[in-house]
Structure formats: C-alpha cells, structure tokens
Amino acid sequence: MSDRLRSIRVKRTSQQWKAFPDFKHCVEFSRQYNYENYWDFYQAQQWCWDNLGHTINLDIWMDLQRSHKNDMNEVWTYQPQTSMYPCRIYFKTDKELEMFLLKWG
Prior knowledge:
- By secondary structure, the chain is an alpha+beta fold.
- It has one domain.
- The chain has helices spanning 35-52, 58-66, 94-104, and strands spanning 8-12, 25-29, 76-79, 88-91.
- Strands 1-2-4-3 form a 4-stranded antiparallel beta sheet.
- The longest helix is centred in the middle third of the chain and has 18 residues, at 35-52.
- The chain is globular, with a radius of gyration of 13 Å.
C-alpha cells in the first residue's frame, strides 16, 4: 500500500455534526465494505495515535462531555463505521489536519 489513502473526503464540521464545535475538520473514509478500506482507516488511525497522541472514541468523548468528566484536551478523535456513518477521524484545528494530509492526502 502506498502512503496515500484510496478514497478519503475532508469535510468541515458544522452545527449538525456531533463533534462540532470541538473538532473543526473530519476525514471520511469510503463506506464501501471491504478489508482495504478498513485497513486504510486502521493505518490512518494508528498514524494519528503515533503522531498526535492519545484519544478516545467520539461517542465516549461525547458522553464524558455531557457528564462534565472530560478534562482531556484531545486534538483528534475517531468514529468507527456504523449503519449511519462511514469511518471518520476528526481534527481539532487546521494544524492537525494539515499534518494528516501531508502524510495521507
């Protein structure tokens, strides 16, 4: 596999996104169910862990936010594919997105 992901889309979050306003950007992976797409997501997620630091799943992060128990300052988070959403990685600022795109875009 090359360093480039097969099919990603970069989107800016808005009010209808659960991650908004805490995370500014979203990278969406292909919804097509196959191992290559999941491998791409895994590789990108691992790169984020190695280069941007620890994080937790977006849904858990949201629960902690609602309970006011989240004092962590994540610069990225992720969301596995569901019946409604493709696999996604969210970034807090332009800086994290730019780092990601230098490697994967």
